[in-house]
Amino acid sequence: MVPDQDDRSDRDSRLPPGSPVLEAILENERNRRYLGQRLDAAGDRIDTDLLGDIVRHGPVLEALLSEPLDRREIEARLDVSRATSHRYTQWLDERGFVEKVDGRFQLTWRGAVIAEEVLRFEANVRTAHRMTPLLDAVCEDHRDFILEPFVDATITVAEPDDPYKPVERFVALVNESETFRGFNTTHMAPLVLGEFHRRVFDETDTEIIYLPHIVEKLFETYPERAREAIDRGHLTLRTREDLPYGLALFDDRVGIGGYDETTGLMQVFVDTDAPIAREWAERVYASVRADSKSLEEQSALIR
After folding, report:
1. Which band of pLDDT confidence, cut at 50, 70 and 90, is reported for residue 196?
2. Which of the two residues, 46 and 170, has the higher pLDDT score?
3. Contacts of 254 (CB under 8 A, 6+ apart)
4. 70-84, 135-149, 250-264: which range is least confident on average?
5. Angstrom distance (rounded) from CA 302 to CA 236
6. Contacts 24+ apart (CB under 8 A), 116-120
7. What is the b/e burial string over 39-50, where b = at least 16 CB atoms within 10 angstroms of the residue's CB?
8. Which of 15-19, 74-78, 246-250 has the lowest mean pLDDT?
9. What is the H or E stretch that residue 93 is in?
10. Methanogenesis regulatory protein FilR1 middle domain: which residues (predicted)?
11. Which pTM value belongs to this model?
12. Over the stretch 115-126, which tens digit does the pLDDT of each residue have?
């Protein structure tokens, strides 16, 4: 089931507060499905033609967000004619988005807010488009991750002639990291991939949260090595009855994996080093870990 707003609020209230930026993003995510209702209640929806005009003027708004410009500089920056730059600035002026100071057009406070929101809209639309393979691979009930931290993410998708491309990207990041934490609906990498499990068992300080039957399968495949890695403190395994998708936290990056429901193969892996993504991932991992169980609580799994 999809967590409702109250469920998410209760879950988040149990976690340490994040940075103001993360808290604002999370609040927007909690409220996004209710924005239309709130706007209807306010009784003052913006005309769709105006919204379209604002987006069409995004390039000049972005240019002026960087610094005030005169008309010639606008023409050069946007590679437009004098008539077009005049039309742009006239439209912005009529709506109170710009003011002219010392021969240059500069954004008003209102104009600056509008410019930032247009850029945010463009970034989120672009990110949603780029992350389509992941969105398609993740169950609709669990699409609770937020897009903004992944604007500049590396997206690796399985291809017909290279079906293991996402797994290879994931394993490469594991090999570059001294620590690794994560949770997953299936094995982080195919059990036949011995090099990955050697790294996890012998070289990387690892904590993984799996579904119970995945842990059982891991011990069936590597009974001695898995037990030895746990005893040495290299590997910590925990279990949870339900997991949303695959989340990986490396030393310097975080990633999300989406899997084919039939084959269990990783279809897409999205990773980034953005600090806000790290903060979001740490928060999600802490929430999932808090609802998981240690192997000591389920001794039958490792007999």
Report:
1. confident
2. 170
3. 247, 248, 271, 272, 273, 277, 278, 280, 281
4. 135-149
5. 13
6. 116/65, 118/54, 118/55, 118/58, 118/61, 118/62, 119/58, 119/62, 119/65, 120/148
7. eeeeeeeeeeee
8. 15-19
9. helix 82-94
10. 163-291
11. 0.72
12. 999 998 898 888
Rounded (5°) CA angle 230-236-242: 135
How long is the chain? 303
**18/32 Cα distance (integer angstroms):** 19
Question: 145: pLDDT confidence band, cut at 50, 70 and 90?
Answer: low
Name the DSSP class of 290: H
Cα-only R_g, the chain: 24
Q: Beta strands 254-259 and 246-249: pairing type?
A: antiparallel
- Amino acid of residue 181: R
3-state secondary structure of 151: coil
Q: Which two tokens stand for residue 279?
A: 């903060």
Beta-bridge mates of residue 198: none
Quick check: 97 pLDDT over 90? yes
Instruction: Give percent helix, percent strand, percent coil of the chain, each to the nearest 5.
Output: 55, 15, 25
Dihedral angle at the C-alpha atoms of 113, 118, 121, 122, nearest 10 degrees? Answer: -140
Interatomic CA distance for residues 285 and 217, integer angstroms: 23
DSSP per-residue string spanning 250-265 = -SS-EEEEEE-TTT--
